[in-house]
């Protein structure tokens, strides 16, 4: 704040003039001594009329500037001095932190705005908070604390890379399935896919005799196709206490893998652990995944319990044909072998009994363009 | 510059913008009005004109904030220009009439005569209107548009006003308004520099004393320094705070070439006013109003410095002789003989009648030969002569000045002298007074060149006569001059060089003779009506045959000198004035344990300026070290740091970059790679970034306009 440096200089100058015999400088000295506490006192009246807001876009990209605006609104009719606040930014996924202080001014009955740009190397959810607001007197010497706060957040989406998942989806027994494909017929007559007119070659067993009698023409009932969700992609965010770079890499790998599975028409379950809970999402299409992605990168995993343990508790007796495990280390993935065939994608590929595909931080984008998951 | 380590999460602050334009506009309008009020205090128009000018300001403020601002500005300036063309004579008369008080102020401040302009006050309203309109429009434009050159002009006007040439209130109002604008007006990075500029102007205004920029404060400061460091010369130059022993060295100081070698008193420093602890020159306040007297005297070729010589020449006392003086040491004064007749270094614009400042190291003066007998004898001859009426009329006017200024004594001094000389009930002649002074000094004082006098807060004369009782020429001269004043005879204190008669008789005519430090001497001079300032020697060892001869003639009732001296044309008897002219008691309060507050203020202000300069220098050195560290840093850190530096330079100097000139894409790509990728950064990339930095700096230098270029240079030094 310029005034903080200017006030002593001006005070010295006015004192010098006064000592040299300029009587008017006595008034100037009086003003210089009286104005700071006067404006400081006025700030006590106006501090409850100050509001702050943080404006951020909803999403952003890694390594790209993200526009940030801090606005201060003052409804106090008397001008206040500079407003300082502490800006804290936390990437809730990777734990990256940044804090700085900003100063802006809100004139009487108006607003002030301070812009800026964030840039993050890692994906995640960037939560920005403006706290410890202080309103200073006109010369920036005496602060008054203010209870105004502001919050904002932006999802920094991971940058996916083109990849193809080499994965054979094993079939499931029909009696186990409770879901049916919405877009193609199958062989399960307990569920009707659609009704249509008879075409040459159709099986007589498929004729809907009752409806055909009513309509006086042959109507075929096509059976449904039971769908087996046998692929689980699980991201264990807490395994191996990952570093921010590892979390970022795993997020990119998860996003790329899910995107590839969607593009290949493979439906799957997507699960991750956060705050000691397991989040499940059913992904049938790319749109489903885009909706789930911001929530996937929203928070970190927590440290108390293993994600695999939580997942096992959640799955109970359910089994999967293929479980793709993503984590910093693969050791927790071994526990999941009870519920399916596990293949792990890990940053630190230590010796394990399950197949591990290493995620090397410096070249995973090149090496994982083709993921052999049928190991 | 603050080098930044690449981090996972970075933040780049941007500029601040403001909403609430209405509040900001009102604030600026008010502060601009305050500045205009200061301008009008300096301009001093009438109330009606001031109200009209505020209306001009308000209209200008509204128009310059609209989209028609350029039309409004052009139209108003055109109107002012046309007004200046068609009314130029009246404007010039009005300006001249407005400047006359300024000339009076300059006379008081500088002690030089400035002839007033022949202008009538009737021409001033036109000038007020024109100049006031210009100020109003400039203020409105500067407040609305934040133009830096205009701000510089406004700050300079505020500083100049603050120097007191017009009004302290004007400067205060203007400076306060500019300060308020600098504090409250954000959104433009210039005002950090503008605020510092204003602070610097205010500090300069505090550093330069308001009443006498070059004179009194400088003398006082020199006196204070001399007081702190006792020996800054053989004689104290009037500063009696600490008088050390007389060190008679043989250092050559003056080289004389005399046409007729004789005993000489060479005047240098002349002390006109005794403060109790120093001899100083008369203050500007005391000389206020006397400039016209000296203008009249100088026009009649009457100079106080040459009065004695010309009085003697008029009465054929002695002959004219030439004297060439060459200073062998740096000296503030020209050393001129008491009987000076002609000297080309006399400035007829300088109206105090004290010593003559040295303007060159070698100079020639013409003086009237002769001595005390001749000078005393001139008084009677002048009175008897019939061709001296013009001279006597001038002398009479000057005599009034002398009697008005050379009788002052501080109260403490007068009280002490009263105790010393006892109660005086009868009137005394000049001769009687001289006798009393000599007797008193002989009784009370002992000549001691090794005497050191530290009188503290006490009066110097009182301390010397009543406590110490020892001293050398400085003590004797001060005491004698004060005693003269006590008895009602105008007197002053002089320092210079003395060539004794015995030594002068050994010098062949026309031969160069060197005066040394041991010739330095101080003496008292009293004013002999009609004649001028006569040296009065009281220091033991310096009174020679001439004084004895003079005394003999004065005491001999049959001598013509006795008759003329005691029957002068202005019968005068002196008595102790009933009420001594007292110096203000506030003077005592201004002495703060020996330290004068005004030099202290000057020192504080100077310290603040030096601190500011030191801070800038420190930042410059820190920047240089940071840049050097970057050059030697590993490529990754160097690339990121240099790129950040280039962006900072452009942002702060608000210089837009030309994509065609600078390879921003490549530089940005290198920066991203350095910050966010794990790839190794090569030396070639570092070299490329160094070259890019050079391009940016050259581009900024080439394309910035000069006001921004100055700010850009400041950024280059300290950021």
Helix content of chain A: 10-25%
Percent in strands of chain A: 25-35%
C-alpha Rg of chain A (nearest Å): 32 Å
Q: In the residues of chain A, how many domains can be counted?
A: 3
What average pLDDT do the residues of chain B reach?
A: 76
Task: Give the overall form of chain B.
Answer: elongated
Structural class by sheet pairing and helices of chain B: alpha+beta
Query: Mean of residue pLDDT of chain A?
Result: 83
Main sheet summary of chain A = 6 strands, mixed
Distance between the termini of chain A: 63 Å
Secondary-structure-based class of chain A equals alpha/beta
Number of structural domains of chain B:
3
Main sheet attributes: strand count, strand direction, barrel closure of chain B: 5 strands, antiparallel
CATH topology of the largest domain in chain A: Rossmann fold
For the largest sheet of chain B, list the strands in their spatial order. 9-10-7-3-15
Q: State the largest interface.
A: A-B, 63 and 56 residues
Describe this structure in words.
The complex is a heterodimer of chains A (375) and B (719). Chain A is of the alpha/beta class and 375 residues long. Chain A folds into three domains: 2-12 and 46-157, Immunoglobulins (Immunoglobulin-like), CATH 2.60.40.10; 164-169 and 228-372, von Willebrand factor, type A domain (Rossmann fold, 3-Layer(aba) Sandwich), CATH 3.40.50; 182-224, no CATH class. Chain A is built from seven helices and 19 strands. Chain A has helices spanning 2-19, 24-46, 209-215, 244-263, 286-296, 307-315, 364-367, and strands at residues 50-55, 59-61, 66-74, 83-91, 97-104, 111-120, 124-136, 143-146, 150-157, 164-166, 188-197, 219-224, 231-235, 268-274, 277-283, 320-327, 340-346, 356-358, 370-372. In chain A, the strands form five sheets. In chain A, strands 2, 4, 5, 7, 8 and 9 form a six-stranded mixed sheet that branches. In chain A, helix 1 packs antiparallel against helix 2 (24-46) and helix 4 (244-263) packs antiparallel against helix 5. The longest helix of chain A has 23 residues, at 24-46. The mean pLDDT of chain A is 83. Chain B is α+β, with helices and mostly antiparallel strands. Chain B has three domains: 21-206, no CATH class; 228-593, no CATH class; 604-718, no CATH class. Chain B contains 27 helices and 19 strands. Chain B has a five-stranded antiparallel sheet. The radius of gyration of chain B is 35 Å and the shape is elongated. Chain B starts with 8 loop residues before the first strand and ends with a helix. Residues 1-5, 187-192, 206-219, 225-232 and 567-596 of chain B have low confidence and may be disordered. Chains A and B meet through helix 1, helix 2, strand 4, strand 5 and strand 6 of A and strand 1, helix 1, helix 7, helix 8 and helix 23 of B. Strand 6 (111-120) of chain A pairs antiparallel with strand 1 of chain B.
């Amino acid at each position: 704040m310029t005034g903080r440096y200017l006030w002593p200089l001006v005070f010295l100058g006015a004192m010098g003039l006064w000592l040299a015999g300029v009587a008017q400088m006595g008034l100037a000295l009086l003003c210089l001594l009286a104005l700071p506490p006067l404006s400081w006192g006025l700030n006590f009246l106006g501090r409850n009329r100050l509001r702050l807001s943080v404006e951020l876009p909803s999403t952003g990209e890694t390594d790209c500037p993200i526009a940030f605006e801090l606005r201060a609104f003052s409804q106090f009719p008397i001008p206040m001095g500079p407003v300082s606040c502490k800006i804290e930014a936390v990437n809730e996924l990777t734990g990256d932190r940044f804090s700085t202080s900003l100063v802006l001014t809100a004139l009487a009955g108006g607003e002030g705005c301070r812009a800026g740009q964030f840039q993050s190397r890692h994906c995640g959810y960037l939560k920005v908070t403006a706290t410890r607001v202080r309103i200073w007197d006109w010369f920036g010497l005496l602060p008054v604390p203010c209870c105004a706060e502001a919050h904002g957040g932006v999802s920094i989406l991971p940058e996916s890379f083109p990849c193809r998942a080499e994965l054979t989806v094993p079939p499931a027994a029909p009696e186990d399935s409770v879901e049916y494909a919405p877009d193609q017929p199958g062989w399960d007559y307990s569920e009707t896919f659609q009704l249509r007119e008879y075409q040459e070659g159709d099986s007589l067993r498929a004729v809907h005799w009752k409806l055909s009698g009513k309509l006086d023409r042959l109507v075929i009932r096509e059976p449904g196709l039971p769908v087996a969700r046998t692929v689980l992609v699980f991201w264990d965010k807490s395994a191996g206490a990952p570093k921010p770079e590892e979390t970022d890499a795993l997020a990119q790998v998860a996003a790329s893998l899910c995107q590839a599975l969607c593009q290949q028409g493979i439906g799957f379950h997507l699960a991750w652990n956060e705050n000691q809970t397991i989040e499940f999402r059913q992904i049938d299409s790319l749109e489903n995944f885009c909706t789930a992605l911001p929530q996937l990168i929203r928070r970190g995993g927590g440290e108390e319990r293993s994600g695999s343990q939580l997942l096992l508790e959640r799955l109970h007796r359910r089994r999967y044909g293929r479980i793709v495990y993503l984590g910093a280390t693969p050791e927790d993935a071994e526990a999941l072998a009870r519920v399916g065939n596990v293949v792990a994608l890990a940053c630190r590929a230590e010796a394990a009994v399950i197949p591990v595909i290493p995620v090397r931080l410096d070249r995973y984008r090149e090496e994982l363009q083709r993921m052999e998951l049928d190991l | 510059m603050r080098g930044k380590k690449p981090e996972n999460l970075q933040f780049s602050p941007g500029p601040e913008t403001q909403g609430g334009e209405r509040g900001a506009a009102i604030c600026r309008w008010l502060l601009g009005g305050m500045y205009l009020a200061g301008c009008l205090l300096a301009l001093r128009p009438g109330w009606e004109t001031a109200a009209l000018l505020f209306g001009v300001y308000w209209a200008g403020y509204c128009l310059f904030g609209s989209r028609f601002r350029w039309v409004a500005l052009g139209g108003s300036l055109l109107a002012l220009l046309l007004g200046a063309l068609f009314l130029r004579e009246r404007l010039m008369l009005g300006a001249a009439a407005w400047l006359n008080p300024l000339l009076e102020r300059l006379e008081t401040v500088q002690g030089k005569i400035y002839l007033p302009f022949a202008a009538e006050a009737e021409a001033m309203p036109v000038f007020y209107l024109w100049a006031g309109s210009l100020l109003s429009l400039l203020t409105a434009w500067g407040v609305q548009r934040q133009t830096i050159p205009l701000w510089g002009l406004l700050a300079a006007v505020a500083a100049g006003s603050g120097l007191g040439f017009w009004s302290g209130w004007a400067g205060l109002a203007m400076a306060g308004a500019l300060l308020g604008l600098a504090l409250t007006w954000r959104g433009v990075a210039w005002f950090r520099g503008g605020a510092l500029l204003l602070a610097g102007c205010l500090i300069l205004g505090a550093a330069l004393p308001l009443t006498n920029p070059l004179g009194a404060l400088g003398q006082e400061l020199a006196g204070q320094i001399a007081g702190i460091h006792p020996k800054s010369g053989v004689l104290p130059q009037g500063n009696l705070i600490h008088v050390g022993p007389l060190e008679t060295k043989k250092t050559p100081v003056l080289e004389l070439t005399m046409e007729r070698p004789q005993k000489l008193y060479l005047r240098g420093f002349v002390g006109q006013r005794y403060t109790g602890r120093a001899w100083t020159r008369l203050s500007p306040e005391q000389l206020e109003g006397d400039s016209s007297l000296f203008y009249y005297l100088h026009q009649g070729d009457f100079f106080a410095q040459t009065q004695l010589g010309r009085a003697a020449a008029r009465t054929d006392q002695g002959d004219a002789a030439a004297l060439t003086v060459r200073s062998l040491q740096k000296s503030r004064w020209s050393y001129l003989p008491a009987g000076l007749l002609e000297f080309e270094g006399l400035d007829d614009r300088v109206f105090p009648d004290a010593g003559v400042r040295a303007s060159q190291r070698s100079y020639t003066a013409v003086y009237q030969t002769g001595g005390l007998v001749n000078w005393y004898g001139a008084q009677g001859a002048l009175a008897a002569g019939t061709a001296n009426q013009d001279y006597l009329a001038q002398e009479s006017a000057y005599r009034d000045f002398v009697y008005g200024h050379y009788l002052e004594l501080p109260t403490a001094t007068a009280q002490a002298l009263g105790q010393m000389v006892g109660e005086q009930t009868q009137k005394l002649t000049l001769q009687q007074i001289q006798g009393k002074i000599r007797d008193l000094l002989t009784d009370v004082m002992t000549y001691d060149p090794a005497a050191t006098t530290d009188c503290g807060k006490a009066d110097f004369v009182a301390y010397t006569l009543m406590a110490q009782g020892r001293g050398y020429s400085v003590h004797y001269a001060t005491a004698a001059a004060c005693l003269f004043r006590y008895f009602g005879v105008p007197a002053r204190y002089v320092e210079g060089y003395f060539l004794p008669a015995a030594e002068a008789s050994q010098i062949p005519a026309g031969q160069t003779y060197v005066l040394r430090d041991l010739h330095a001497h101080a003496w008292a001079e009293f004013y002999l009506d009609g004649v001028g300032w006569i040296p009065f020697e009281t220091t033991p060892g310096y009174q020679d045959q001439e004084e004895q001869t003079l005394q003999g003639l004065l005491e001999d009732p049959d001598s013509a000198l006795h008759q003329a001296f005691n029957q002068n044309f202005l019968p005068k008897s002196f008595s102790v004035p009933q009420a001594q002219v007292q110096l203000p008691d506030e003077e005592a309060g201004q002495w703060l344990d020996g330290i004068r507050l005004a030099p202290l203020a000057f020192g504080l202000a100077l310290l603040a300026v030096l601190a500011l300069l030191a801070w800038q220098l420190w930042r410059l050195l820190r920047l240089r070290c940071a840049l050097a560290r970057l050059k030697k840093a590993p490529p990754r850190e160097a690339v990121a740091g240099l790129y950040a530096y280039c962006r900072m330079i452009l942002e702060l100097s608000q210089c837009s970059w030309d994509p065609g000139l600078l390879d921003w894409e490549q530089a940005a790509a290198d920066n991203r790679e350095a910050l966010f990728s794990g790839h190794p950064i090569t030396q070639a990339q570092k070299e490329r970034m160094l070259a890019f930095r050079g391009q940016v700096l050259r581009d900024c230098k080439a394309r910035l306009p000069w006001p921004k270029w100055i700010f850009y240079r400041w950024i280059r030094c300290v950021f």
